Amino acid sequence: MDNLRDLRNIGISAHIDSGKTTLTERVLYYAGKIHKIEDVRGGGDGAKMDHMELEKERGITITSAATTVAWKDHKINIIDTPGHVDFTVEVERSLRVLDGAVLVVTAVEGVQSQTLTVDRQMKRYGVPRLVFINKMDRTGANPQKVIETVEQKLGLTAVPLQLPIGLEMNFEGIVDLLSMEAVYFDGEKGETVRREPIPEALVEVARQRRQGMLEALSLYSDELMTILLEEEEPPMDLILKILREATVAQQIAPVLMGTAYKNKGIQPLLDAIVNFLPSPLDRDVKARDNLDEQAEVVLQPKDDEPMVAMAFKLVEEPFGQVTYMRIYQGMLKKGEFYYNTRSGKRARISRILRVHSDEREDIEAAGAGDIVAVMGIDCATGDTFCSEGINYSLESIYAAEPVIDLS
Ligand code: GDP
Fold first, then answer.
1. Do residues 69 and 27 make contact, with C-beta atoms less than 8 angstroms apart?
2. 30 C-alpha to center of ligand 1: Å?
3. How far is the CA of 261 from the centre of ligand 1 (A)?
4. What distances in angstroms separate CA 258 from CA 25, 102, 109, 353, one per listed residue?
5. 67 annotated to a ligand binding site
6. Is any ligand 1 atom within 6 A of the Cβ of residue 54?
7. What is the reported pTM?
8. In what order do the strands lie in the sheet containing 192-196?
9. Could you write out the three-class secondary structure of the chain?
10. What is the pLDDT of residues 205-244, one digit of tens each?
11. Is the pLDDT assigned to residue 383 strictly greater than 50?
């Protein structure tokens, strides 16, 4: 990975019917579009563009356990995190490879039973989260109430970064409380972002909400507290830094809103994912060293370390088993042998695939922090693979108490 700081491994979780699938498709659509445009600029003949147009007509569907998209110089791996009642160890495994998550709730129902279950899991694995309030267009939408229930039921300090412009069928866009602009989403698929001055009627309430946001953030920064006491305008860099650090430390959850259905608010959500959720460098991952009485070791997300990866999802495909892996340190290389520390067997990686929203790309190697699909190995989920010479297990660290969902 060229710059690990620009990588995000995230999941999108929700109670069933909150719009998780629709939202994920929108994210793939916008970020996938960027990917294609870059391809064309990179010397393609435009054929990809036509393909994209087709894709646009058909709508992109998620079929993969992990999909890679690009957004503003960042790479985002979106890991499928099933949120249904069949809550199993499989789901847990998909949660533990995440560095951050988007918790989707609806503007009408707010926090529901499955939201609580998933949130509890994420807390257990220390996964920082953003909250996206979806379905702002629905009758009965009440984002303010939802924000209160997020705080009460999830015990998160919710920090709204936006103020809605209109509600229910009149939901038009949002006021960005960071830049203090009105943001509208034009075009049939909400593809164009139009920024304008805040409508007169909302100027005062936007000012108050921004003040509220800054006061909430000042609890995590003496520097900001001093600036506010002196009634000065804090620099944007400082606000972004506090938002990021407090989110990564799981002290706050930034809140965004929109409608996946009508494509309003997706681009600001992508911005928030890259701005506030952590990169693999921001998290400590530990393993057990089986050669040293299972002593704890902290894995180093660097390419020049011995390779350590965990298989978190197996998918049977017509052409064989595809194993989704997260690489925690070192580089995973095609053609190399690695050691399965559970079974004691060596396995050769015959192919490494990066899964984009509409194509699979064969790659030669993948670096620390990344998530890829590999072929040619036989294993179970939860298995750890290592370079020769080391013998670590990731699973035992996390396989703490079993989780039973009673909701
Ligand atoms: P999932 O079960 O969480 O994956 O939810 P889906 O994406 O399948 O959406 C459930 C239903 O809600 C579908 O009928 C969607 O069309 C609808 N839906 C999704 N997002 C929105 C939204 O922003 N507003 C409205 N009104 N409906 C939505």
1. yes
2. 18
3. 6
4. 14, 13, 14, 33
5. no
6. no
7. 0.89
8. 162-165, 173-176, 181-186, 192-196
9. CCCHHHEEEEEEEECCCCCHHHHHHHHHHHHHHHHHHHHHHCCCCCHHHHHHHHHHHHCCCCCCCEEEEEECCEEEEEEECCCCCCCCHHHHHHHHCCCEEEEEEECCCECCHHHHHHHHHHHHCCCCEEEEEECCCCCCCCHHHHHHHHHHHHCCEEEECEEEECCHHHCCEEEECCCCEEEEEECCCCCEEEEECCCHHHHHHHHHHHHHHHHHHHCCCHHHHHHHHCCCCCCHHHHHHHHHHHHHCCCEEEEEECECCCCECHHHHHHHHHHHCCCHHHCCCEEEECCCCCEEEECCCCCCCCCEEEEEEEEEECCEEEEEEEEEECCEECCCEEEECCCCCEEECCEEEEECCCCEEEECEECCCCEEEEECCCCCCCCEEECCCCCEECHHHHCCCCCCCCC
10. 999 999 999 999 999 999 999 999 999 999 999 999 999 9
11. yes
Confidence of residue 52 (pLDDT cuts 50, 70, 90): very low
The pLDDT tens digits for 54-86 are: 444 333 344 578 888 999 999 999 998 865 555
Percent of the chain with pLDDT over 90: 64
Q: Which ipTM was obtained for this model? A: 0.99
Mean pLDDT, to the nearest integer, of 32-45?
41
Ligand 1: residue whose CA is nearest its atom 25: 135
User: Of 123-132, 134-143, 368-377, 388-397, where does the model show the most confidence?
Assistant: 134-143
Main-chain phi, psi angles of 404, to 5 degrees:
-115, 130
What atom in ligand 1 is closest to the CA of residue 24? 7
Q: Between 202 and 91, name the one with better pLDDT.
A: 202
Closest CA to 239 of 261, 266, 220, 257: 220
CA of 134 to the centre of ligand 1 (A): 8
